[in-house]
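Troubleshooting: if your tokenizer reports a length mismatch, compare against these two reference records.
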Amino acid sequence: MKRWLHWVRLSLGITLVALLVTHFAGMHATWNAVLSAHPLPLAGCVAIYFIGVVLSCLKWQWLLRAQGIQASLTRLVQWYLMGTLAGTLLPSDIGGDLGRGYAAAREMGNGAAVWSSILMERFTGLIALAVLAALALALMPGVLDAPAWLPLGAGIGVALSVVGFAVMLGFSPVRLERLPHWLSHIILQFQEVAARYRNNAGTILACLGLSVVFHLGNALSFWWLALAIQPDAPAATMILWPLAGLFGVLPLTPGGLGVREGISAALLMHADLSSDQAVAAALIGRMLLLLCSLAGLPTLIATLSHVHERASTASEKEIPNDVRI
């Protein structure tokens, strides 16, 4: 993808954040709410972030081990943090999972196994998130001030999750020739990845369980984020997180910039936060994500330096000895 498209997406994300602050909340009141946020719940959010990174890398390690590859958890965490930073800050689409996948494949020497493990790690997380989002839709009418028709959305979410799980195990719930070409192509790709784990159903189920724990931690972090702004924010705020997380994966802007904040703010207003408080909490969440992602800076610098050294070495080898100075 061309670099200019990345900048367009980044500009869109910044514009969405600016519109959120200027049109849905007061800039002065939002800034005051940010400055007055209680630091203790925010420290808990930071701790949950890094615990979540470890859980994700533990899943990644299990999936690699299922293919006969032994990898250090510490090294996987370093690559994961590097990918998070690359996907969040760099002006390139070669970041996130692509960044950590490149680094891992370069060191392990088994690109197919690395990429399939990353895809399965993400896919199990997405299935778990979809199930929790469906559960959130089912509970919202009874717990929060929300429309009573939301259980219908919950049913649709469960159905899609079942289809996704079937695809993950290598089954086709529908005949692929009846689907659009792009959708059947995606399903076939996932089935090719799943084929590597068809004899490791226990690993897949364990990864799904770990994904649920990961998302429940994020739900707790979402509540603590609200508590930092509004000390009496209800615990039911945790129910909202899966919806924010599900919308946040839409690839409209880098790292969901602007999209995640808008959805989070809209949901937090259902938890009795004012528009200023909800926007402030969403912005603080983005700030914490950016700060936590800096933990991947040392690995990113080391990886980029190694790539530069390899490129320089390759260039020198192309120059004949008799023309070198």
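Reference record two:
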Amino acid sequence: MIDIGPNTDGLPGIEQLRIIVGAAMTVGLILAVLALIIAAIVWGFGANSSNPHLASRGKLGVLVACGAAIVCGASVTLVNFFWTVGQSV
């Protein structure tokens, strides 16, 4: 039976890569919050000005921003889950 796992010491720069990925996740979450705020403003403006097209664009923007935040926040858990599934095959 062969048991091979990820080698965290194998290549130089692994720790810096973790820092870069963590920073990218932070930037992604900040941008998702910004997109959520902008989309909510557009949604509210469209609803108050009786513009259904603008309101629907704002609603879609809110959903997309929430989806992006879910993906950014759950990315590590998703990768770990599928890693575990892949190891059990």
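Descriptive notes for reference record two:
- The mean pLDDT is 92.
- The longest helix spans residues 52-88.
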